[in-house]
Amino acid sequence: MSVEVGNKLQGKVTGITNFGAFVELPGGSTGLVHISEVADSYVKDVNDHLKVGDLVEVKVLSEKDGKVALSIKKAIDRPDVQTSSYSQRPPRPGRVENRSKDFRPKGNFKSKESFEDKMARFLKTSEENLSTLKRNTGAKQGGRGGRRG
Q1: pLDDT tens-digit series, residues 24-54
Q2: Which end of the chain is more exposed for a tag (fewer CB within 10 A), N or C?
Q3: What is the DSSP string of the chain?
């Protein structure tokens, strides 16, 4: 088989570096399997997964200027399964899926209160809250010691 993008080939690991492994392909060409393409899980050290002399199946990702990029993890045939674990989570209980983000009332909603009535109610509750706050914090103010006077 020739070295063409998308082909799966059998190769022999000829060298291991901290950034990947060099694989000799049929026909004498050599390609690099980057550390991110060695396995599906996190790879801290390539030596934990490969040894010099191992025969591996690789998939050709790209070929440019004689440099061949290879992948071991993409060479493994898997059924079409979503790779994101987030999308496979079950919905949270009590949660409505596909809910609209628009929180405005729908339809011909008419407010029972006018704007002026709402503003007057807001001002009244606001003044009540401020007076309660002042009453409760008035005794707590002061510096060191008792009051002087």
Answers
A1: 998 889 999 999 999 989 999 999 999 999 9
A2: C
A3: ----TT-EEEEEEEEEETTEEEEEPTTS-EEEEEGGGS-SS--S-GGGT--TT-EEEEEEEEEETTEEEEESTTTS---S----SSTTSPPPTT--TT--S--SPPSS---SS-HHHHHHHHHHHHHHHHHHHHHHHHTT---SSS---
DSSP-assigned states of every residue in 28-66: S-EEEEEGGGS-SS--S-GGGT--TT-EEEEEEEEEETT
Q: What is the mean pLDDT of the chain?
A: 82
Sequence-distant (6+) residues with CB within 8 A of 62 are: 5, 68, 69
pTM over 0.85? The answer is no
- For 31, residues 6+ apart whose C-beta sits below 8 A from its C-beta are 3, 11, 22, 23, 25, 58, 60, 67, 68, 69, 70
CA dihedral 97, 103, 107, 111 (to 10 degrees): 150
